[in-house]
Write a structure and sequence with these properties.
The chain contains five helices and five strands; from the N terminus they run αβαβαβαββα. By secondary structure, it is α/β, with parallel strands linked by helices.
Length: 291
Amino acid sequence: MATSRHILRRRIRGARETAKVTRAMEMIASARMRRTEQRALDARPYATRLSELMRSVASDARVRGEHPWLHSSEARRVLVLHMTSDKGLCGGLNSKLNALLGQFIIEQGVPVDVVTIGSKGRDFAVRTRLNLVAEFSGIGDSPRIAELRPLCRLVADMFSRGEIDSVYICYSRFLSVMVQRPQIEKLLPLNWTAAAPVEAREFLYEPDVDRVLDELFMRYVEASIYHGYLELVASEYSARMVAMHSATDSARELAEDMTTEMNKARQAAVTEEICDVSTGTEALLSRGSHG
């Protein structure tokens, strides 16, 4: 019994130490989540407005002559930018993103190339033997656009050379602390038919609409990828905060349950000893009366 109580004490200490660690990780994730959430929210208006501007300019370019960035023939090869975290302990965030990517690839009737951003996505691509073109990891939770520029240049070059016909981004959109939505959005070619209707007016472009579109193209790619990554980081820390909160509660409940079990075992041992003493006393008294 003493050995059993010793094991329980050791497990209780382990559960309580685990609760301390997960509680600290929860507090760190909470602090970082607030900063990353604000960055993601601040980036949304710029990314949305730039996308609308690109579609507006693209619609004019389409009328005046098909631009290379607007080529919308049937896709023969697709590229997916798969964004995941570098670290785990964030609930089912990465597994949901990996499952979404796998389902997307299955549904495509053409070859799909994958560029991963984050080690969890890279590990999934290697494990499932996807056509991994490139991988980027260790970017951190507060990158600048310059740090993502090599990725943006890779995407632009592959698309302009005709190596791929469509580009998609797989990332997690931050909705709230409790809700993060994995989704896949089309980045290229530009969906110029989705441009919001505008009032009939004459636009003047200097030097010309194609040159303006060329200049805006890289800004559009950079802003879209940067915004997607900020949404992912905000989702990661939100999911980690919730996961660590649940882990802390579970560890504390486990420690309490084992403490109750140890107390019951102690009570059973004390009761057994009392019974032994009582039985021995009765035996002695009985022997004395017979004597």
